[in-house]
Design a protein that fits this description.
It is built from ten helices and six strands. The protein is an alpha/beta fold. Strand 4, helix 9 (172-181) and strand 5 form a beta-alpha-beta unit. It is globular. The mean pLDDT is 96.
Length: 218
């Protein structure tokens, strides 16, 4: 049995990492821009870029930041993009990651399926202090989630069927919907207690990773 994870937002505190990077950038530019509005628009732009022809995620971080700044009437320099991309490997894991995944390793093999470059993911995994059995990145597949083909390729690599894989993630659009579309069982990590989006019904909904082992391995 495999338990696969989205990384950024599920294991790594993606939101805090991005917001801190944007706060620093906007402060340096002395820009009176609402952080929430900037963050939300950047997310939309980033999603548009990952659906185009493949390019490394470091480049997507740069071009999406450039486009967001331009939309808000702010100047972009190559240094801005490079610094933003360089922050991603430093974003920290959620506190429940190490103990929860250590427990899960007693029951299943663990993997990550992530929309990033392999070197970035390796740095993030080192911060988790957990050994994974496999890491699957957009760089490997030259495809980004939510393309369902990402999950089909991951199962080929793991040597498992959809019923032999549980996918754990916080994002519906990127993970829960496409994973379920190819037959995988899913666990939605809803740390903030948000309303469930339409379109899919995860097999389990949890508020933290420590609940996962009790749900799928009772």
């Amino acid at each position: 049995m495999w338990v696969t994870f989205d990384c950024y937002g599920t294991l790594i505190d993606w939101d805090t990492g991005i917001r801190q990077a944007f706060m620093t950038l906007l402060s340096e530019k002395q820009a009176p821009v609402d952080l929430n509005a900037f963050h939300a628009r950047w997310e939309e732009i980033q999603f548009d870029w990952i659906q185009r022809e493949y390019q490394p995620y470091k480049e997507i971080l740069k071009v999406s930041l450039r486009d967001a700044l331009n939309e808000f009437g702010l100047p972009y320099a190559d240094e801005d993009g490079a610094r933003f991309a360089a922050t991603m490997p430093t974003w920290t894991p959620f506190p429940d990651v190490k103990p929860a995944l250590t427990e899960l390793k007693k029951h299943a093999k663990l993997a990550i399926i992530s929309n990033t470059d392999s070197d970035i993911l390796q740095s993030s995994v080192a911060l988790m202090e957990v050994e994974f059995d496999e890491l699957v990145t957009a760089e490997d597949n030259r495809l980004y989630k939510p393309n369902p083909r990402v999950f089909e390729l991951a199962m080929q690599r793991l040597g498992c069927t959809p019923r032999e894989m549980w996918h754990v993630a916080f994002g519906f659009k990127y993970d829960i919907l496409p994973a379920q579309s190819v037959g995988c069982r899913t666990v939605w990590v809803n740390r903030a207690g948000e309303p469930r989006p339409a379109g899919a019904t995860p097999d389990f909904e949890v508020r933290g990773l420590e609940e996962i082992a009790r749900c799928i391995f009772p």
